[in-house]
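[DERIVE STRUCTURE TOKENS]
===
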Amino acid sequence: MDMESTAAAIGVSVPVLRFLLCFIATIPTGFFHQFVPGGATGKHLYAAVTGLVLSYLSFGFSSNLHFLVPMLVGYVSMVVYRKRCGVITFVLAFGYLIGCHVYYMSGDAWKEGGIDATGALMVLTLKVISCAINYNDGLLKEEDLRESQKKNRLLKLPSLIEYMGYCLCCASHFAGPVYEMKDYLDWTEGKGIWSKSEKGSPSPFGATIRALVQAGFCMGLYLYLVPHYPLSKFTDPVYKEWGFWKRLSYQYMAGLTARWKYYFIWSISEAAIIISGLGFSGWTDSSPPKARWDHAKNVDILGLEFARSAVEIPLVWNIQVSTWLRHYVYDRLVPKGKKAGFFQLLATQTVSAVWHGLYPGYIIFFVQSALMIAGSRAIYRWQQSVPPNLGLLKKLFMLVNFAYTVLVLSYSCVGFMVLSLHETLTSYGSVYYIGTIIPVVLILLGNVIKTKPARSKARKEQ
């Protein structure tokens, strides 16, 4: 195959084409995992070797050296100092990831259509951190743990081959989704929900085909839209001549266009995880029962595009990373016996920003997202205070929350796309910082206009 002519024909660079071929290869590679001989050990070895080989073919030999650093940091900390291995791994693995982001300037490469190993390193970083924290949690008393901690904690140290298979399993190595060591071990050994049952073994083929069809549709739509809504337009003199509403609508369309690229990537990942069996998450209660594949799901396209409030966005976008952030950052910052507040939300979004890279656009976007969610919560509290007999007013609040979410998300995500401070502030300023001002005003009003749920008032009257 002539890589250069093929890459030119589809409008991508050679490194991106090489990545896409290796990325798609994770689907058949994941499928053959179930046929590997040698029991669990053979499967762990297969997961590790295929991950290393596909990484080498996609990014080159240096990528595997980068992957070994956080892997060694995590495993050595678990062996040497279990009591603090979670914190040690969090700090050192994140520090190494940040260093790679800075050295490779990965955000600029992605923005210009390039590719490097830092995307896979981002996924690996979350894996090694969660493994170390869960091993740390294995020392704690069960009554002091949350449900997620009880489910995922590790009572004994994983073997080195188990650890390598977990870290490098090719089905999620390139773009996620992130999963837990406990789930990986159960899947490999045929335990837990993966054990034989009277319901039989779930067939992954229908769900895999659905994910592939979705991937094809998303890529087709992205390729159609991207020439019409380039990011370069934000610094084009023509953009500055447009009126307010046209600039605002362009921000929405630019964000919508960019999202289809992520939908494509996550749909391919979903197909690879499903066909391997790791994406299985249990059976529905319907008759007959149907297999669920929630472990593979990283995005709910309709759920995001028609989100009724900003609070729903982490539940439908980059789902597994959002779950990771909730379990390993957000929940752990809440003092025992107290409720989470804006500090926990802002700290979690800051960690997410740093995980993506030290670009002003990322940091501004995730601070914006914290404001966006807090403002949406204020609208929701007012909505909940509306008495049941004023149904039309309640629906009006729901419509306002939906419109608010579309507006602020479209505005905020420009920073995530353009990355530079100048371009971010220029695009925000072109619409008079409306997506920052409205959330701040709503947060302030929410602190002034105190409300109680309408149900509580009804109970008091009774």
About this structure: DSSP finds 23 helices and two strands in the chain. Confidence is low (pLDDT under 50) at residues 456-462. Strands lie at 282-283, 291-292.
